[in-house]
Amino acid sequence: MDRRILGIVLIVVGALLLYFGYQKTGAVTERAKQTITGDYTDRTMLYLVGGAAAGIAGIALVVLGSRR
Length: 68
Description:
The chain is an all-alpha fold and 68 residues long.
């Protein structure tokens, strides 16, 4: 049961990180850097990649935690 709770928490944290990362992609400075270099800032990438990783780990814990 503890793994499922941890999985749900990771899914929520991942969704929040993805949301904030997506919001940062629309910022003026972010758009300017993306236009010039083709990349987002390191902080924005950290939000997006970290959110995706937390979400995937959370889904895995929910699915695999219920098999136990």
